[in-house]
Amino acid sequence: MLGNLYDRALGGERCWVRHDDGEVRYLPVRRWLGGRHADGDFDRVVLTLCKGPTIDLGCGPGRLVTELVRRGVPALGVDQSETAVGIARRSGAPVLRRDVFEPLPGTGRWQTVLLADGNVGLGGDPLRVLRRSAELLRRGGHCIVEFESVVTGIRTGWVRLESSRTIGPWFRWASVGIDCAAELAEEAGLSLSGIHPIGGRVVASLTLT
Ligand SMILES: C[S@@+](CC[C@H](N)C(=O)[O-])C[C@H]1O[C@@H](n2cnc3c(N)ncnc32)[C@H](O)[C@@H]1O
């Protein structure tokens, strides 16, 4: 989806995301890579919310999967980027290189599905992403989802990655406000069971009852 400019961003090329409404934001790649650039408070809270076998959809370079496994929590990352998967594997994270909508192991048996760093907006279709997450969960399991604290409603549009050398292709993305969490959860067959503000960010627990 993100094309090879994302792979190059993971390799250190400075990239930004341009939205079709003109907004431009730097890609927080260094935060995704973890280490001293990680958002430590966010990662700590999210990691404590991941109970039991956890699947991280769109895990990127896998910092959260790596840490879960280090803590003895069974975890699997899924990402379609070859570079992200390579970095994750070198950090010791079990990761599958696959589209999250393709068949995945343990479907219907995961206790936690993780959607961090805006991944509820993958493909511009948050309902599809949450329905897919619900399929992966066992009864009583939770989907831990980062929503946007400043966005209201669902903002769906086209975005592309850019650097000073390259412009990537447009792809669909959605930014999803926390105000939509309860309604989206219900439409996906989940129920909102908790909201966890972390600094300027916010995570919701959605439960499969
Ligand atoms: C916003 S980044 C999230 C980074 C990640 N959560 C982290 O902590 O580093 C989105 C990630 O989702 C992956 N991705 C996007 N669409 C995907 C799909 N349909 N299937 C699998 N991975 C996907 C991208 O390759 C990218 O690594």
Describe this structure in words.
This protein is α/β, with parallel strands linked by helices. Helices cover 28% and strands 32% of the residues. The chain is built from seven helices and eleven strands. The chain has helices at residues 3-10, 29-33, 40-49, 63-70, 82-90, 126-136, 181-187, and strands spanning 16-19, 24-26, 54-57, 75-79, 95-97, 110-115, 137-147, 154-162, 171-176, 191-198, 201-207. The strands form two sheets. A seven-stranded mixed beta sheet has the order 5-4-3-6-7-11-10. The longest helix is centred in the middle third of the chain and has 11 residues, at 126-136. The protein is globular and about 50 Å long. The termini are far apart. It binds S-adenosylmethionine.
Question: Helices and strands in order, then pairings?
Answer:
Blueprint: H1 3-10, E1 16-19, E2 24-26, H2 29-33, H3 40-49, E3 54-57, H4 63-70, E4 75-79, H5 82-90, E5 95-97, E6 110-115, H6 126-136, E7 137-147, E8 154-162, E9 171-176, H7 181-187, E10 191-198, E11 201-207
Parallel strand pairs: 3-4, 3-6, 4-5, 6-7
Antiparallel strand pairs: 1-2, 1-8, 7-11, 8-9, 10-11
The structure holds S-adenosylmethionine.
S-adenosylmethionine binds next to helix 4 and strand 4.
